[in-house]
Amino acid sequence: MADIHIVNGPNLNLLGRRQPEIYGKRHFEEFLEELKERFAGHRLHYFQSNGEGSLIDYLHKVGFGRVGIVLNAGAYTHTSIALADAVAAITAPVVEVHISNVHAREAFRHHSYLAPVCVGSIVGLGLSGYALAVQYLIEHLEHEQ
Ligand code: DQA
């Protein structure tokens, strides 16, 4: 049984209401219930914050355990060296996820401070990206045992 932490950054609490043409019409809480059913043999934890410091504190708290982390840092992806330092500091594998295809959007979304310190990135696959990241992390943690 794996422990997977899904961490969403700023404005992702508005999923379903926020620019639905880009991010879709589903509320994350509803999708999360579906994910928990799909990965019923594992423990999925969820944390969302609009604050950079709170996201860093959460990574510090859980990131030294035998866990996997799925991180959609929202706009902090493109701005936060502090968040990248936190990901580099912790020992848990982190997969970066973006709902939209950031490479097909504004130039300022093309650069990620997080990508080099994550095990991999999934972009543009909508909410499915979270499920794929969870699947990967479960396999990754099982292989490490
Ligand atoms: C996002 C992409 C970011 O550029 C943006 O700031 C977000 C959401 C995504 O999931 O597509 O808040 O991370």
Summarize the structure.
Helix content is 36%, strand content 19%. It has 145 residues and is an alpha/beta fold.
Structural account:
- The protein has 145 residues and is α/β, with parallel strands linked by helices.
- It has a single domain (3-144), classed as Rossmann fold.
- The protein is 36% helix and 19% strand.
- The chain has five helices and five strands, in the order βααβαβαββα.
- The chain has helices at residues 20-23, 28-38, 52-62, 81-89, 128-144, and strands at 3-8, 43-48, 67-72, 94-98, 120-123.
- Strand 3 (67-72), helix 4 and strand 4 form a beta-alpha-beta unit.
- Helix 3 (52-62) runs parallel beside helix 4.
- It starts with a strand and ends with a helix.
- The structure holds 1,3,4-trihydroxy-5-OXO-cyclohexanecarboxylic acid.
- 1,3,4-trihydroxy-5-OXO-cyclohexanecarboxylic acid is lined by residues 11, 72, 74-75, 77, 98-100, 102, 109.
